[in-house]
Design goal:
CATH architecture of chain A: Orthogonal Bundle
Number of domains of chain B: 2
Helix content of chain B: over 70%
CATH topology of the largest domain in chain B: ABC transporter involved in vitamin B12 uptake, BtuC
Number of strands of chain B: 0
Distance between the termini of chain B: 55 Å
Strand content of chain A: under 5%
Shape of chain B: globular
CATH architecture of the largest domain in chain B: Orthogonal Bundle
CATH topology of chain A: ABC transporter involved in vitamin B12 uptake, BtuC
Largest sheet of chain A: 2 strands, antiparallel
Structural class of chain B: mainly alpha
Order of helices and strands of chain A: HHHHHHHEEHHHHHHH
Helix content of chain A: over 70%
Oligomer: heterodimer
Shape of chain A: globular
Distance between the termini of chain A: 29 Å
Protein name (chain B): Branched-chain amino acid ABC transporter permease
Number of domains of chain A: 1
Main location (chain B): membrane
Number of helices of chain B: 20
Number of strands of chain A: 2
Organism (chain B): Ferruginivarius sediminum
Subcellular location (chain B): Cell membrane
CATH class of the largest domain in chain B: Mainly Alpha
Largest sheet of chain B: none
Strand content of chain B: under 5%
GO molecular function (chain B): branched-chain amino acid transmembrane transporter activity
C-alpha cells in the first residue's frame, strides 16, 4: 500500500516486499547475535525460574566457558579442514578420542612425577600432551594420503569425501576399542581434584582454568600462524580458491598436509583436555562431534575465530541448561542452536552476506 | 517324510517363490507355475539337507537380512535417487520400532505399571502397528526436512547425525515414553497363537501346523518379512521408474535444469526424504516384532546407520536390486566374521590377553575398511545404476540405443 505512494514505485524490483525486508533484516549479523543472546538469556531465566541460585548459575556459566574451550579446540581443526578441503570431516570426533588415548598411553610409559598444585596433574601429563599432538596430526596426514588424496585426484564429489570420512571415523573408533577396550579410563585414577573457592560463590577447579588458558594460547598460535606466516597465507588462499592458488605457485598438497597436521594436533589437545575434565571413553569424541559441527556452522565454515566464538556460546548454553534439563541432552541443545543458525543465517555469524 | 519338515518347507517356499517370480526368465504364463514348483522343490531339498539347527540359523539370518534390505531400500530412495546424505538411519529405525511397539502392546496396569511405563498402548493389530511406524517415521522426517533440506547437502548429513543421536537420547532418558533406559518387553508377534495352540488355526492349516513347535515361529515370520520386502521393492521400483522417480534423479544430477523445467526442487527433495524415512520406519516396526524386547541401545550408529550405508554402497546406490543384494551380502559378511573371529581367538590371545574379549571390534574394523575400499575402488557398487529407467524408452529403438551408449560410457569411465 505504501509502495504506491512511494516515488520509487516505478521500479518495483528495487523495493522489496515487507516480508522480504523482514527476512533480510533477520539475516543480518546483528539480528543473529541478538537472537543468540536472547536465547542464552532465556536459558538463564528458565534456570532462575527453577529456583537455581545465582552462584550456581555463575559457576555453570564459567564451566560452560571451559567446555567451550574444549569444543573450540576441536572445532578450530574441523573448520580449517572444512574450509581448505571443502568437506565435513566426520572422523574428527574419532581424532579427538585418539588424542585423549594417545596422551593416556604416553603417560603410562612415563614415570609419575609430583603433582603440580593447584592442578591435579603432574609434568608427565604435559609431556604426553605435547607428544600426542603431533602424533595425531601425523595420523591425520596418513589417512589423507591413503584416502582423501586419491579421491581428490579423481575429482570425486563431496558426498564421497563425507562417506570416506564416516568410514574413517568407524575405522579409528574400532582401533581405539581394540587397543584400549571399552572401559572408562582416567588420567589419574581416584585423585582428589578439589574446586577452588572463589568470590561470588564460584566453585571452579584449577584444571578448568588450565583448559581455558591452553585453548586461548592455541587459538592465538593458530591465529598468528594464519595471519603472519607464509604457510598461513597459502592456507587462506587455498581455502578461498584452490585453482587460483595453484596457478600462483602454491603447493596445495603441502597446504593440505599442514591443515591436517594442525587439525589433528588441535583435536588431540581438545581430547586430552576433555579427558582431564571428565574421563576417557571410546565414545567421547562422538559426543563432541555434534557440538563441534554446531560451532563450526555458527561461526561460519573456515573461520577459526568464529569457530571459537560459536564453541563458547554452545558450551555456555549446554552447561547452563543443565540447571533445568537432563545433562544427557547437551548435544540436543547444541543441535537446536545449529538448526536455528541454519534457519536464520546459514552462512554463520562471521560469514559474508551471500 | 517328516511332517514337520514338510510344514517348514511350505514356509520356506514363500520367499523362494517370490525370488523365482522375479528371476525366472520366462513369460508370466510359464513363469508362475515354474516358480511355484521350483520353489517348493528347492524348499524341500534345503530343509532335508540341512540339520534343523542350521536351518533355523539360516531362517533367522534371512529375517535380519530382509529387515536390513528394507532399510537399505529406504536409504536408496533418499541417497540413491535424490542424493540425500542421511547419516541418521538409526533415528528413523528407532522411531519405527518404538511406534509399532507402543501401538501393539497393551498399556501396563496394576503391578506391571510399576515396572513398565509407556506413553500409551493401543493393542492394535500388527499391520496397523507397522503402518503407524511408517507414518510416524515419515512425519519426523518431514519436521527435519523443512529447515534443513533447503540448504546444502552436507548440512543434511550433519543434521541427521544429530537427529539420530537426539532420538536415541530421548528413548534412553524419557521413562514415561517407552520405559526409559529399561527395555520395552513383550511386543506381540503377529499370529503367534498359530504356533502356541494349533486349535487357533482354521481347518486345513491346523493339520499343517500340528507338528511345529512355538520356536518354529520364525519360519512364519520369514514369510511376513519377505512379503513386505517384496511389496516395498515393488513400490520403490515402480516409484523410481515413474515420472516422479525421474524428476528425483534430475534434481540429483542437474538441479538447475530441473528447476528450469518447472519442478519445485525443495518439494521433491522433501517428498523423497519422507518416503525413504517411512520405509525405514517400516523396517523398524518389523524389527520390533521380531526382537520382542527392544531398548535404546539397539539403535546405535554402527548397527543401524553405518552398516546400512555399507550395504547400499556395496550393492550399488541407485539400484534397488543392488540394495537388496548388498544387504544380504554384508549381513552375511557380518555374521560370517563372527565365526572367523572365534577361530582366530587363540592367535589373538598370544598377541595380548585382552584381545579375545575385544575381537568383536575386529569385525567393525573390517566393515570400515570394506566401505573405504568401496568408496575408493568401486563407488558405483556391484550393480551400477541403470541410466535409462523409463519403460517407454526401453521398448523403442531410442531406448536401446541409449542403453548401449550408456554402457559404453560406463566402460570408458571404468577403464
Amino acid at each position: 500500500m505504501n509502495a504506491t505512494q512511494d516515488p520509487t514505485a516505478q521500479a518495483p524490483e528495487l523495493t522489496p516486499r515487507l516480508d522480504e525486508r523482514i527476512r533480510a533484516a533477520l539475516q543480518t549479523r546483528t539480528a543473529m547475535a541478538v537472537i543468540l543472546a536472547g536465547l542464552l538469556a532465556l536459558i538463564v531465566v528458565l534456570a532462575i525460574v527453577q529456583d537455581v541460585s545465582a552462584g550456581r548459575i555463575l559457576s555453570l556459566t564459567v564451566w560452560g566457558i571451559m567446555l567451550g574451550g574444549v569444543i573450540g579446540l576441536g572445532s578450530i581443526g574441523l573448520t580449517l579442514c572444512y574450509g581448505v578441503l571443502k568437506f565435513p570431516n566426520f572422523s574428527h570426533g574419532a581424532m579427538v578420542t585418539l588424542g585423549a588415548y594417545v596422551t593416556f598411553a604416553v603417560m603410562q610409559a612415563l614415570p609419575q612425577g609430583e603433582v603440580l598444585r593447584p592442578f591435579s596433574f603432574g609434568w608427565e601429563f604435559l609431556v604426553a600432551l605435547i607428544v600426542s599432538m603431533p602424533v595425531v596430526g601425523v595420523v591425520a596426514i596418513g589417512i589423507d594420503r591413503v584416502m582423501y588424496r586419491r579421491l581428490r585426484q579423481r575429482n570425486a564429489s563431496l558426498v564421497l569425501f563425507a562417506m570416506a570420512s564416516l568410514a574413517m571415523a568407524f575405522f579409528l573408533r574400532s582401533i581405539i576399542y581394540l587397543v584400549w577396550g571399552s572401559d572408562f579410563r582416567f588420567y589419574y585414577e581416584g585423585r582428589a581434584n578439589p574446586a577452588l573457592d572463589l568470590p561470588f560463590g564460584l566453585r571452579v577447579q584449577a584444571d578448568q582454568f588450565f583448559i581455558l588458558g591452553l585453548a586461548i594460547v592455541l587459538v592465538i598460535a593458530v591465529y598468528l600462524l594464519l595471519e603472519r606466516t607464509k604457510m598461513g597465507k597459502a592456507m587462506r588462499a587455498t581455502a578461498n580458491n584452490p585453482e587460483l592458488a595453484q596457478v600462483r605457485g602454491i603447493n596445495t598438497e603441502r597446504v593440505v598436509a599442514w591443515t591436517w597436521l594442525m587439525g589433528g594436533a588441535l583435536a588431540a589437545a581438545g581430547g586430552a583436555m576433555y579427558g582431564l575434565a571428565s574421563q576417557l571413553r571410546p565414545e567421547m569424541g562422538f559426543w563432541l562431534l555434534l557440538p563441534m559441527f554446531a560451532a563450526v556452522i555458527m561461526g561460519s565454515i573456515g573461520n577459526p575465530r568464529g569457530a571459537l566464538a560459536g564453541a563458547l556460546i554452545i558450551g555456555v548454553a549446554q552447561q547452563v541448561s543443565t540447571a533445568f534439563l537432563n545433562p544427557a541432552y547437551g548435544p540436543g541443545v547444541a543441535f537446536i542452536l545449529m538448526v536455528l543458525t541454519l534457519l536464520i543465517r546459514p552462512q554463520g555469524l562471521f560469514g559474508g552476506t551471500e | 517324510m517328516d511332517q514337520a519338515l514338510v510344514a517348514k518347507s511350505v514356509f520356506l517356499a514363500v520367499p523362494l517363490l517370490l525370488l523365482g517370480l522375479k528371476l525366472v526368465p520366462l513369460r508370466w504364463a510359464l513363469r508362475i507355475p515354474v516358480a511355484l514348483v521350483g520353489a517348493f522343490v528347492l524348499a524341500l531339498i534345503i530343509s532335508n539337507l540341512l540339520p534343523s539347527g542350521k536351518l533355523s540359523y539360516l531362517v533367522s539370518f534371512s529375517i535380519m537380512a530382509g529387515i536390513y534390505a528394507i532399510l537399505t531400500l529406504g536409504l536408496n530412495t533418499q541417497w540413491g535417487f535424490t542424493g540425500h546424505l542421511n547419516f541418521g538411519i538409526a533415528g528413523f529405525f528407532a522411531v519405527g520400532a518404538f511406534t509399532s511397539a507402543l501401538f501393539t502392546t497393551a498399556a501396563p496396569t496394576g503391578v506391571m505399571a510399576q515396572y513398565t511405563q509407556q506413553a500409551f498402548g493401543f493393542e492394535a493389530p500388527f499391520l496397523i502397528g507397522i503402518l503407524a511406524a511408517a507414518i510416524v517415521s515419515g512425519f519426523v522426517a518431514f519436521l527435519i526436512a523443512i529447515p534443513v533440506l533447503r540448504l546444502r547437502m552436507d548440512f543434511l548429513a550433519i543434521a541427521t547425525i544429530g537427529i539420530a543421536e537426539i532420538i536415541r537420547l530421548i528413548f534412553q532418558n524419557e521413562r514415561w515414553l517407552a520405559n526409559g533406559p529399561q527395555p520395552l518387553r513383550g511386543i506381540p508377534r503377529p499370529l503367534h497363537c498359530l504356533f502356541d495352540e494349533p486349535s487357533c488355526a482354521p481347518g486345513p492349516l491346523a493339520t499343517l501346523l500340528q507338528p511345529l513347535e512355538p520356536r518354529d515361529y520364525i519360519y512364519f515370520y520369514l514369510c511376513v518379512v519377505t512379503v513386505l520386502l517384496a511389496l516395498t521393492y515393488l513400490l520403490v521400483e515402480t516409484a523410481t521408474r515413474s515420472p516422479w522417480g525421474r524428476v528425483l534423479r534430475a534434481v540429483r544430477d542437474e538441479e538447475q535444469s530441473a528447476a528450469m523445467n518447472g519442478k519445485n526442487i525443495t518439494s521433491f527433495r522433501i517428498q523423497s526424504f519422507v518416503v525413504g524415512a517411512a520405509v525405514m520406519g517400516l523396517g523398524g516396526g518389523l524389527y520390533a516384532h521380531y526382537a520382542v524386547t527392544i531398548d535404546y541401545s539397539h539403535f546405535n550408529p554402527l548397527f543401524a546407520t553405518f552398516i546400512v550405508w555399507v550395504m547400499l554402497m556395496l550393492g550399488g546406490s541407485g539400484n534397488n536390486k543392488g540394495a537388496i543384494l548388498g544387504a544380504f551380502i554384508i549381513w552375511g559378511v557380518w555374521s560370517g566374521t563372527a565365526f572367523l573371529t572365534g577361530m582366530i581367538e587363540p592367535t589373538l590371545a598370544q598377541i595380548s590377553q585382552d584381545l579375545p574379549a575385544r575381537s568383536a571390534y575386529l569385525r567393525w574394523l573390517l566393515v570400515a575398511i570394506l566401505l573405504a575400499g568401496i568408496v575408493l575402488y568401486r563407488p558405483q557398487g556391484l550393480i551400477a545404476e541403470e541410466k535409462v529407467v523409463s519403460r517407454f524408452l526401453a521398448k523403442t529403438g531410442i531406448g536401446r540405443g541409449r542403453r548401449k551408449q550408456a554402457r559404453e560410457e560406463e566402460a570408458e569411465t571404468a577403464s
